[in-house]
């Protein structure tokens, strides 16, 4: 999201249903201890918005549906933790 925002796309919507945990701070510059327990997408919006005020940064915290995805011109999926079974499935 950071690079898309710095590049100046029109808008970025962050989707995450998880909450910030202490370990998230080791790999994500937008979180602080005050964010622990908050939704990750909601906790990210303000700090990411500061990177480029010309980009609309918003969050989506409900389960993602096909209808919601259809509203976007593009999407990027990323996971914090990838299990070994997931890696095997991707590698096949």
Automatic annotation (TrEMBL):
GO terms for molecular function: ubiquitin-like modifier activating enzyme activity. It holds the Pfam family ThiF. Residues 1-75 form the THIF-type NAD/FAD binding fold domain. InterPro entries: ThiF_NAD_FAD-bd, Ubiquitin-activating_enz. Transmembrane segments: none annotated. This is Ubiquitin-activating enzyme E1 1-like. It comes from Trifolium medium.
């Amino acid at each position: 999201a950071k690079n898309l925002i710095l590049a100046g796309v029109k808008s970025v919507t962050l989707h995450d249903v998880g909450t910030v945990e202490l370990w998230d701070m080791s790999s994500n510059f937008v979180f602080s201890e005050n964010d622990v327990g908050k939704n990750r997408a909601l906790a990210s919006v303000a700090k990411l918005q500061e990177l480029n005020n010309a980009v609309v940064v918003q969050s989506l915290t409900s389960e993602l549906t096909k209808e919601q995805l259809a509203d976007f011109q593009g999407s990027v999926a990323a996971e914090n933790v990838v299990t070994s079974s997931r890696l095997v499935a991707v590698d096949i």
